[in-house]
Amino acid sequence: xxxxxxxxxxxxxxxxxxxxxxxxxxxxxxxxxxxxxxxxxxxxxxxxxxxxxxxxxxxxxxxxxxxxxxxxxxxxxxxxxxxxxxxxxxxxxxxxxxxxxxxxxxxxxxxxxxxxxxxxxxxxxxxxxxxxxxxxxxxxxxxxxxxxxxxxxxxxxxxxxxxxxxxxxxxxxxxxxxxxxxxxxxxxxxxxxxxxxxxxxxxxxxxxxxxxxxxxxxxxxxxxxxxxxxxxxxxxxxxxxxxxxxxxxxxxxxxxxxxxxxxxxxxxxxxxxxxxxxxxxxxxxxxxxxxxxxxxxxxxxxxxxxxxxxxxxxxxxxxxxxxxxxxxxxxxxxxxxxxxxxxxxxxxxxxxxxxxxxxxxxxxxxxxxxxxxxxxxxxxxxxxxxxxxxxxxxxxxxxxxxxxxxxxxxxxxxxxxxxxxxxxxxxxxxxxxxxxxxxxxxxxxxxxxxxxxxxxxxxxxxxxxxxxxxxxxxxxxxxxxxxxxxxxxxxxxxxx
Length: 496
Fold this sequence. Notes:
The protein is 39% helix and 20% strand. The protein is an alpha/beta fold. The chain has two domains: 6-267, 3-Layer(aba) Sandwich (Aldehyde Dehydrogenase, Chain A, domain 1), CATH 3.40.605; 272-462, 3-Layer(aba) Sandwich (Aldehyde Dehydrogenase, Chain A, domain 2), CATH 3.40.309. The protein has a seven-stranded mixed beta sheet, with helices on both faces. The protein has a five-stranded parallel beta sheet with strand order 9-8-7-10-11, sandwiched between helices. Helix 3 (79-95) packs antiparallel against helix 5 (112-134) and helix 10 (282-294) crosses helix 11 (314-326). The mean pLDDT is 97.
């Protein structure tokens, strides 16, 4: 991986970004619907333009994916062959890691320290994981009578449409692209409107690595056109999506209106981070709680956005938390010293501030932050905000902000903590801090969430799945379980 010196970052940040195009059938083309301006959240200034795909462009991309799949040049390639290509792609991501990280920061505002690890660093590891996994996934022989041979084959599903969010586009995109490609599918990727640039670069590297033309296609544009066209396509077999609940619901409706394509949806969360008085170290828990919500300006699907604290240590813990937050530098995300970067867009920033206004009206106490920051830069920055006294009926307790706003609620005992933790329509992640091993196990079993952290928050790798329950969606990214989304089971019943 390239050295991340400040001078190298500054040099890359000064490079002009060429206009983004569509990748259809291995050819970079203009969009029929023209182009859209890309504004950098760092300073609010124009960064470049993106091609805007029309519904016809999307149909051409899907047709290219279908043609490549039926031709079989990728799906019929020996798993060891696909493995070699994906390893080459991972090597190219590493080789271009600093360029990818800086490009992504300029596009979506993530602080560069986190971007280096979470974007190219994570993406390269994900492609290597599935490259190594795919030639180790076996079919089955069923137990039958002696005169029957029953074989269970795993086959690629066909054409996969992937819609990716703007907070970690390269990381989350790789969670979907890598297993889909490893299994032998062809893909049409729709990057987020406000963070497409690293995924376009990834597609360029995929061609260089040897992914055949038509196997990996990219269409950029607004969800109302590009995403809708993919979801309504009669020739997309599986759709995978990470994003908002309302959009996820529309995708399910479009599936019903078209070909009943399978939809796997990761729809965010409002994750509880629960601190008991007997936490092993309250100082460590306070530091972790600050990072859990304020890194990447709170724009993390598993962010610990609801902090539940036992009443006997509530005030002490909130004070410790605030001191940790004040030590986290807010500023230019391209500065290596920054820990809290920019909010992705002006629209998102305004929405975040609206949550703070509503929280104050509903009786919450803003003990830290609450306002826009660094207005002189022209960028989209917000003070890290802590609101105490938040109750389960408050909007800030119920809805996902996806910004640097923490809701704090006190609880009395273990039963109360569990009740408050589950008082949410979401169920993506959670955290529990306690020295009581039995309590930890009870909380893990009792909390309705796809991931429960104990005496830590975040930090899982590709060996374990990520997915939610309730209105956080269905299906899983990461781990071998992700391959279930991209493979079909076929039974061969052979009379001997």
